[in-house]
Specification:
The chain has 285 residues and is an alpha/beta fold. It has ten helices and eight strands. The chain has one domain: TIM Barrel. Bound molecules: flavin-adenine dinucleotide. The site of flavin-adenine dinucleotide (FAD) has 24 residues, from strand 3, helix 4, helix 5 and strand 6.
Amino acid sequence: MRISDLYNNEKTVLSFEVFPPKKTSPIESVYGVLEELCDLKPAYMSVTYGAGGTASDNTCAIATRVKHTYGVEALAHITCVNSSKDEVSRVLDSFKENDIENVLALRGDIVPGLPPKTDFHHASELTEFIKQKGGFYVAGACYPEVHPEAENEITDILNLKKKVDAGAEFLISQLFFDNQSFYDFEKRCRLAGITVPIEAGIMPVVNTKQIQRMVSLCGASLPSKFSRIMTRYESRPEALRDAGIAYAIDQCVDLISSGVRGIHLYTMNNPYVARRIVEGVGKLL
Ligand code: FAD
């Protein structure tokens, strides 16, 4: 199934992201989580690649299981910063052999001390390579609060346009906590002639460790409404979890009623939290 066809429908697309287990854990350790998440019937499920020290070859295995065992369409992430063309090609071949036809083409983060390989410099080049190889539908990542390495918001949008022109059929955004930053970004995209659907990345924050890590990694700004919640409940884990879920639901309700094309839920492999979000917004899509 071509995921971008889902946006032809009036309904808001609700999708999930999962990550493979760490290299030290067996792949089976994530099966229970996958099954519970798939039971919630997301429109599709994306599977990260090599992020945070996970084994990248598990991406294909997990995407295959999601699609063929649990019957949910899969979007496999693939990065290029540390890969040659041959290596990327081999990964794509393994996707193809397993009937994974939707991929999220990413540059990937530059790891300090590990010089990037030189076959690809940007996700737009990877997108072009995948399109030339053929047989895949490609999506791309985008950054409502501007990619941390970008010179400014204008060059970032112009670079994003190159990725779309290279063949990205829809975009998934970095997480954000202030919907206005997403609305402003969407406006900049439309002005730049980027017309593809953009899914809003939402991460329910359910513990303080997670928030510190996320903000240092992606630089999302924290509205005062959000910071007040974190401060008030930081020493009460269950209250913090419930407040974080309520905040994410509030963000989703606002986005859906404003006509967002899709919401991509960063589930952090937590079916309980995903279920609460689906219960909160499932009937509003
Ligand atoms: P690009 O689109 O290449 O952009 C990176 C930077 O280069 C930007 O500053 C951009 O403005 C600039 N740029 C782009 N094109 C050009 C050009 N032609 N000329 C000059 N400058 C240019 N990381 C993982 O390791 N694994 C994952 O599974 C993963 N999944 C992700 C999913 C989503 C939805 C998002 C938002 C991010 C994900 N990431 C993942 C993180 C991502 O790899 C990093 O944010 C990375 O730094 C940028 O990747 P990109 O594909 O957006 O890069």
